[in-house]
Amino acid sequence: SKPLLKIDNMSIVFSSPDEADIEAVRQVDLSLTPGKTLALVGESGCGKSVTARAVLRLLDKNADVRTGSIVFTPAGEDATDIARLKPDSLAMRRIRGNQISMIFQEPMSSLSPVHTIGDQIDEMMTIHEGLGGKAARERTVALLDQVGVPGARERADAYPFQLSGGLRQRAMIAMALACTPQLLIADEPTTALDVTTQAQILDLLRQLQADFGMAMLFITHDLGVVAEIADEVAVMYLGDVVEQGSVFDVFSAPRHPYTQALMNSIPKMSRKADRVRLNPIKGTVPAPKDRPTGCAFTSRCPHAFEPCASVRPVRTDVGNGHHARCHLLTQAPVEAMA
Ligand code: SF4
Ligand code: MG
Predict the structure, then answer these.
(1) Ligand 1 pocket test: which of 295, 299, 311, 337 has the largest number of ligand atoms within 8 Å of its C-beta?
(2) What is the pTM of this model?
(3) By 3-state DSSP, what share of the chain in percent is helix, strand and coil, each rounded to 5?
(4) What are the structural domain ranges in the chain?
(5) 218, 229 in Cβ contact below 8 A?
(6) Has the ipTM of the complex gone over 0.85?
(7) 39 CA to middle of ligand 2, Å?
(8) Its Gene Ontology molecular function terms (predicted)?
(9) What distance in Å separates the CA atoms of residue 47 and residue 298, rounded to the nearest whole number?
(10) What residues are neighbours of ligand 2 (ion), with CB under 5 Å?
């Protein structure tokens, strides 16, 4: 079916008065099918959060979508290129409030500390469903119940600080779902939680996705989370999407040396049980300003050869919609053979 979200050739540039512009995200292509989950995975600073925030046009003032398109096609509506909308335009606010919601690692970034969670969700019900008073509260209670808040009717009168971390996370999810979005963007929503709560929230999101039929763009640094929640995965490194495809294809046959290194860094026996942080690869990620013109992974790649530093590898289809950017897929390493 037609993609719900299709990002083509998107570059995001950060400018500052005293330094050269920095391309934080470089010519990224991504596609998300309605009702499916795409995970963006990579180490911190690789551009995954920036990519997600660009979809909502919630970038910092010094950042800008410099090239490309972000085409959003909600069910039964015409396509809109989000990249062409002004961040504070009516059209953008309508998409942000109605069709695309976002949840974060820290629930207090979307919950107000001075209002009860019930009042906050009631207000969403009023804005989006035109419900007032008792009718709004009934829907709020039903939604809190659906996201697994026990004693939802009483808990609706609690302030966020009166709830545990896990319940606050559930309240934030309820807020995000109050507008019945077609796309939920989740930026590391389980990273700050203990392992048990993390597993419960992932289960909940999977269940809600089935109930609401929404698509998810799920940002994480954790391959275990990707395996549990995603249909598709895009691996980012230093602003590049280096590989993307179905979770099955990418996990069973990673084609980019960076993805291969990530996979190898996870002890096989505990691939699902543990939450292993990604940072196992030799060397460190260079600063964005030091990224080579060619492949971003050159300085850490065990297979780097002549064209890697200077020539950017093309996005190569290795079958079944699985793509990677690596010269090994298009040419043999001459030095290695000599
Ligand atoms: Fe390694 Fe070169 Fe492939 Fe980049 S293009 S991942 S440096 S072999
Ligand atoms: Mg981030």
Answers:
(1) 295
(2) 0.91
(3) 35, 20, 40
(4) 5-112+183-286
(5) yes
(6) yes
(7) 13
(8) ATP binding; ATP hydrolysis activity
(9) 18
(10) 49
